Amino acid sequence: MPENTSMIQRLEQARSQGPGALAQACAALLASARGLGALAAARAVALDRELSGLIAALASAQELAICLDELARAARCLGCATCCRASSPTLYAEDQPRLAAAGLGREHMLTLRAGEKVYSARLGRLQTLGRELIKLREQAGACAWLGDGGCAIYDNRPLQCRWLECWSGRHAGQLDGRPRLGRELLLAADPIALALAREYDAKLPAAEIHQALADVAGGEESASAQALAFLELDHGLRTGISGRYGYSVEALFLILGRPALEVAANYGLELGLEGEAPVLRPKG
Ligand code: SF4
């Protein structure tokens, strides 16, 4: 980040308006220097003790510029949480002890099944999974473990979170040779859950559900009956399995994968009624 005249002027001007304006100016400058979103840059500024101290003390524009420059170039995670907001990590076999140490159980994970079409934040497009992936659960598209104070399981965060280096271009794809965590491993001590997972996969193949939903979303009315039948079967199986075996609704996100209705929402569809008949329609 060059300490150019306009930057110094901007910092001087913000400094005359107080710490709040100065923090905003620093965040804007860091955002453009490091390629961050506004929220992410504000978070990184607030988390950096040295810069926060200088802002609170209304240090000189030159001092602030030097500190900002170091921060923008730092070869380390700034805690901006951009990656945590993009999605949750997919898990590898070596994450298992970390998950246990963080107290995470099956209700904190979900399975993306082989054949599912999922959005890859890294590739920036949809991809069809050739094999299943296990992920930490998400909330509104972000990792569920991202809180106001940052990662709630930071000391035990998964391998992918440790590996990703947004500043260097080192990305999760470079981990591809390592063994993934799968249901066979996670549910090894629970043969009933594993058998239910296999049965569910046979009755509701992910690729067929996705195809039917994609067709409905694409306006093919003839696919609607098939898609609705999948949704009904999925609901019936989950309800029946919970009732008979006692697995929680949350645990079934891992054992069976995501409910078909949630997958439908990813295609912009929701369940509604026409008269008394259920229909899949675009989300209103
Ligand atoms: S586990 Fe922690 S570091 Fe990893 S994506 Fe979630 S909040 Fe971010």
Structure summary:
The chain is an alpha+beta fold and 284 residues long.
SSE map:
Elements lengths: L4 H12 L2 H16 L3 H10 L1 H8 L4 H13 L8 H5 L9 H6 L7 E4 L4 E4 L4 E4 L4 E4 L1 E2 L2 E2 L2 E2 L2 E2 L7 H5 L19 H4 L4 H13 L2 H12 L6 H22 L3 H7 L4 H7 L2 E6 L2 E6 L2
Iron/sulfur cluster (SF4) binds next to loops.
Could you please describe the fold and organization of this structure?
The chain folds into three domains: 5-73, no CATH class; 82-184, no CATH class; 189-282, no CATH class. Helix content is 49%, strand content 13%. It contains 14 helices and ten strands. A two-stranded antiparallel ribbon has the order 1-4. Helix 1 runs antiparallel to helix 2 and helix 2 packs parallel to helix 5 (61-73). Bound molecules: iron/sulfur cluster. The site of iron/sulfur cluster has 12 residues, from loops.
Observed structural traits:
single chain, 10 strands, 14 helices, 3 domains, two-stranded antiparallel sheet, 284 residues, binds iron/sulfur cluster, alpha+beta
Q: Name the helix and strand elements from N-terminus to C-terminus, one letter apiece.
A: HHHHHHHEEEEEEEEHHHHHHHEE
* Unreliably modeled segments: none
Strand order within the widest beta sheet: 1-4
| Fraction of residues in helix | 40-55%
Q: Which cofactor or ligand species appear?
A: iron/sulfur cluster
Number of contiguous helices: 14
Q: Structural class given helices, strands, pairing?
A: alpha+beta
**What is the overall silhouette?**
elongated
Largest sheet: 2 strands, antiparallel
Please tally the β strands and state the result: 10
- How much of the residues is beta strand, in percent? 5-15%
Provide mean pLDDT, rounded.
Answer: 94
Distance between the termini: 45 Å
- What is the domain tally? 3
Q: Which value, in Å, is the CA radius of gyration?
A: 23 Å
